[in-house]
């Protein structure tokens, strides 16, 4: 009995809640008859599900694709015009509109089925969504980058069948199939999610991950990659010799490397550069890969709190904001005009190229060699310097105590590198002693001093040689590696 009571207590409020949602949706669509004008409140009711998609048009307005029709606007007082599709939406669109991947080419918007394969075109002049491919749902390139270039549609990378790919496919409008485009160069292992920019016939790719089929572990790609695209000419598309060639530019700035990779990150094209908003980060990042610059722009727009897919028109970003208390969804406009003039902008490098790395190695090698040469010169000079202070020789390797006679002997070599034997003998001659005594005393003193000097400093202090002018005379020379000074 108690179980039945609890069951009805749970079921009845749930029924009333579902009836309320149905009533909201029904009242919103009742207001949305063909060419009717809807105000902000009515538009918000239509956006309470995820079954809508913002797409651009060629004017200052945009469209909101819905299941049964589409909105165009906003006009004065933020009003939209609701239009029915001229034909029924293809039944193959069996996913929420948010799951479709849009790209603009000319006046038409192309919608790619998630995972690739099926392709649809929204023609705003006709007011209809038509399927244009003869393919099938590939389910092989989820989170791939769908883009247009020179009147062609491409799909790059993506995840499917338990691994990521870096393959490039192009839609063949004649056959309705997707053709594989071979690439060359330093292709990444796989591209899942990420941020992309096409500029000057180059596709820049960064901030993506790859996963292999073995362990499904996400491997974050640290580098910026560039894919050369065919160049555009007045007569169409020219495939240059370097077209579809990959190049690894270098390691990204830690500002991007440390950012979480998630579908909640947003990016737009702003003045031909990439504007990035990272989840839970109030800053905006303006990226110019050609100049190798990333600018951090502080702002109070709270863009990171918006949800779902968004678009940029002129200098406004259009997204949605969900009220956490009521669950209602409203359209939000974020004016970013002039954000690049913020005085608090900080500017850093976007990536460190291999050239920078080699320059750093060369600079480091030059600096290291310079330090070694400096130290060698310094220590060579220091090793030569011996200072006589009182009765002690001072040197970097240690101090040598001297006797009184040794101090007087060393002092004789302060100003002269070579002394005659007679000059040195004058230190040892005594009137009451014989000459033989003086000679033995001199030899014993010189031998003992040289021995102690050599043991401490690893080199001899003095050595003798015959005089070049008189072979009968002996001269004592100070070691040429020694620079003797008195303090």
Portion of residues in beta strands equals 35-45%
CATH topology of the domain at 376-486: Arc Repressor Mutant, subunit A
Rounded to the nearest angstrom, the radius of gyration is: 42 Å
Kindly, what is the distance between the CA atoms of the first and last residues, rounded to a whole number of angstroms? 110 Å
CATH architecture of the domain at 376-486: Orthogonal Bundle
What is the number of strand segments?
38
Task: Please provide a written account of the structure.
Helix 1 crosses helix 2 (40-46). A hairpin with a 2-residue loop joins strand 32 and strand 33 (392-395). The longest helix has 31 residues, at 354-384. The chain has a domain at 376-486: Arc Repressor Mutant, subunit A, CATH 1.10.10. It is rod-shaped, with a radius of gyration of 42 Å. Strands 14, 15, 16, 19, 22 and 31 form a 6-stranded mixed β-sheet that branches. The N and C termini lie far apart (110 Å). Mean pLDDT is 84; it is low at 1-27. With 487 residues, it is α+β, with helices and mostly antiparallel strands.
Structural features:
single chain; 487 residues; 22% helix; five-stranded antiparallel β-sheet; Arc Repressor Mutant, subunit A; alpha+beta
In short:
This protein has 487 residues and is an alpha+beta fold. The strands form 10 sheets. Strands 14, 15, 16, 19, 22 and 31 form a 6-stranded mixed beta sheet that branches. A 5-stranded antiparallel beta sheet has the order 1-5-4-3-2. Mean pLDDT is 84; it is low at 1-27.
Blueprint (SSEs and pairs):
Layout: H1 2-31, E1 36-38, H2 40-46, E2 53-56, E3 62-65, E4 69-73, E5 80-84, E6 101-105, E7 108-112, E8 119-123, E9 128-131, E10 145-149, E11 152-160, E12 163-172, E13 177-181, E14 184-185, E15 195-199, E16 202-206, E17 209-211, E18 218-220, E19 223-228, E20 231-233, E21 236-238, E22 245-252, H3 254-257, E23 266-270, E24 273-277, E25 284-288, E26 293-297, E27 307-313, E28 316-322, E29 329-335, E30 346-349, E31 351-353, H4 354-384, E32 385-389, E33 392-395, E34 398-401, H5 404-412, E35 418-420, H6 421-425, H7 435-457, E36 462-466, E37 474-478, E38 483-486
Parallel strand pairs: 14-22, 32-38
Antiparallel strand pairs: 1-5, 2-3, 3-4, 4-5, 6-7, 7-8, 8-9, 10-11, 11-12, 12-13, 15-16, 16-19, 17-18, 19-22, 20-21, 22-31, 23-24, 24-25, 25-26, 26-30, 27-28, 28-29, 32-33, 33-34, 35-37, 36-37
């Amino acid at each position: 009995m108690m179980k039945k009571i609890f069951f009805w207590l749970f079921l009845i409020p749930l029924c009333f809640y579902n009836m309320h949602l149905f009533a909201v949706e029904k009242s919103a669509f009742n207001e949305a008859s063909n060419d009717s004008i809807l105000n902000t409140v009515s538009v918000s009711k239509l956006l309470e599900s995820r079954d809508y998609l913002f797409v651009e048009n060629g004017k200052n307005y945009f469209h909101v694709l819905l299941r049964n029709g589409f909105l165009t606007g906003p006009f004065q007082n933020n009003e939209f015009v609701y239009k029915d599709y001229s034909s029924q939406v293809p039944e193959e669109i069996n996913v929420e509109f948010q799951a479709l991947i849009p790209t603009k080419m000319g006046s038409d918007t192309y919608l790619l089925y998630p995972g690739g394969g099926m392709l649809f075109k929204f023609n705003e002049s006709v007011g209809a969504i038509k399927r244009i491919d003869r393919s099938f749902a590939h389910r092989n390139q989820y989170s791939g980058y769908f883009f247009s270039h020179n009147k062609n549609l491409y799909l790059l990378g993506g995840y499917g069948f338990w691994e990521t790919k870096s393959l490039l496919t192009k839609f063949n409008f004649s056959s309705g199939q997707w053709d594989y485009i071979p690439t060359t160069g330093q292709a990444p292992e796989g591209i899942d999610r990420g941020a992309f920019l096409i500029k000057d016939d180059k596709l820049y790719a960064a901030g993506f991950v790859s996963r292999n089929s073995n362990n499904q572990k996400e491997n974050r790609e640290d580098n910026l990659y560039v894919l050369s695209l065919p160049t555009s000419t007045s007569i169409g598309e020219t495939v240059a010799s370097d077209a579809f060639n990959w190049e690894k530019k270098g390691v990204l700035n830690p500002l991007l490397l440390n950012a979480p990779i998630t579908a909640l990150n947003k990016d737009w094209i702003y003045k031909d550069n990439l504007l990035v908003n990272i989840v839970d980060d109030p800053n905006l990042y303006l990226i110019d890969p050609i100049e190798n610059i990333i600018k951090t722009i502080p702002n109070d727009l709270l863009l990171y709190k918006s949800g779902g897919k968004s678009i940029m028109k002129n200098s406004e970003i259009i997204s949605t904001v969900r009220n956490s208390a009521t669950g209602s969804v409203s359209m939000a406009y974020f004016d970013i005009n002039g954000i690049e003039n913020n005085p608090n902008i900080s500017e850093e490098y976007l990536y460190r190229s291999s050239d920078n790395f080699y320059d750093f190695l060369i600079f480091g090698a030059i600096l290291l060699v310079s330090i070694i040469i400096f130290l060698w010169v310094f220590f060579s000079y220091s090793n030569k310097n011996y200072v006589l202070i009182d009765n002690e020789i001072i040197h970097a390797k240690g101090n040598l105590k001297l006797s009184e006679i040794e101090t007087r002997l060393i002092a004789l070599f302060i100003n002269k590198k070579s002394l005659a034997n007679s000059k040195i003998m004058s230190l040892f001659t005594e009137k009451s002693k014989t000459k033989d005594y003086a000679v033995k005393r001199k030899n014993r003193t010189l031998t003992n001093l040289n021995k102690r000097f050599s043991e401490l400093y690893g080199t001899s202090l003095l050595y003798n040689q015959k005089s070049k002018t008189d072979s009968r005379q002996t001269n004592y020379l100070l070691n040429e590696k020694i620079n003797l000074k008195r303090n």
